[in-house]
Amino acid sequence: EVSTEDPETAFCTLANREDLNPEEGSIHHCLYQFTHNEKLTETNKLLCDVCTQRHNGPKKDIKSEKNYVYTNAKKQMLISLAPPILTLHLKRFQQAGFNLRKVNRHIKFPEVIDLAPFCTAKCKNVAEGNTKVLYSLYGVVEHSGTMRSGHYTAYAKMRSMNNRLSDLVLRGQSPQALETEPVKGQWFHISDTHVQAVSAAKVLSSQAYLLFYERLL
User: Fold this and answer.
1) What InterPro entries does this protein's entry cite (predicted)?
2) In whole angstroms, what is the distance from residue 67 CA to residue 3 CA?
3) Given CA atoms 124, 129, 132, 134 in this order, what sign does their dihedral have?
4) Would you list the DSSP string of the chain?
5) 58-67, 83-92, 148-157: lowest mean pLDDT where?
6) The domain spanning residue 141 has which CATH number?
């Protein structure tokens, strides 16, 4: 969903980003960079409909690009609707000449993540007064190999059914109270037909390609 906010609150987040100080090589740092305030200048200026109308007059039918007015602007991508299920896809590739190369660096990720520093101050399904939007990790997909070939394995957390999460998914309700601890359960490593119980520490040391979090209620 793309929305245009009031200019005075457009760049305001639910929690103070300046207090975050994310560690480089962490999922927090990735999210911080992804939602970073960006300046649009020079050849990347914004086509301003209001400026164009002011320059050409409100009744003029603008058909030529020569009449368009471009202006310096700021852009920031923030979350305006916190999802019940959060999926984070790490783009583990980079340009190397004319080819793509896989990035094998370990990215740190927590069992509980707070999305508030990356949410707009007017996030729609966050209860008034809440300054945290917490998620608990329940799944990880890992890829071993190269850009051309490899093998996918997964870590999944076996846990009890969360009826309140079902209500959130089906009815779009906002959680009234937030828990701060990860959902209890047992982690398993799955590779084809081989399934093995593992520790949370093993999961957190994996080379994540996809991360799956559920909203804490």
Assistant:
1) Papain-like_cys_pep_sf, Peptidase_C19, Peptidase_C19_UCH, USP, USP_CS
2) 26
3) negative
4) ------TTTTT-BSS-GGGT-PPTTBHHHHHHHHT--EEE-GGG-EE-HHHHHHHH-TT-----GGG--EE-EEE---BSS--SEEEEE---EEEETTEEEE-----B--SEEE-GGGBBTT-TTS-TT----EEEEEEEEEEEE-SS-EEEEEEEEE----HHHHHHHHH-PPPSS---SPPP-EEEEEETTEEEEE-HHHHHTS-EEEEEEEE--
5) 58-67
6) 3.90.70.10
Q: How far is CA 197 from CA 188, 192, 194, in A?
A: 4, 15, 10
Any domain includes 56: no
Q: Are 150 and 93 in contact (CB under 8 A)?
A: no
Say if 111 falls within a structural domain: yes
The Cα–Cα gap between 204 and 217 comes to 23
pTM of the model as a whole: 0.82
Taking a C-beta distance cutoff of 8 angstroms, is the pair 175, 217 a contact?
A: yes
Residues 14-38: pLDDT tens digits? Answer: 888 877 788 999 999 999 999 998 9
Q: pLDDT band for 166, please (50, 70, 90 cuts).
A: low
- As a residue count, the chain comes to 217
Q: Are 141 and 208 in contact (CB under 8 A)?
A: yes
* 175-to-114, 164, 181 alpha-carbon distances in Å: 14, 8, 15
Tokens of 148: 């051309």
β-bridge partners, 108: 26
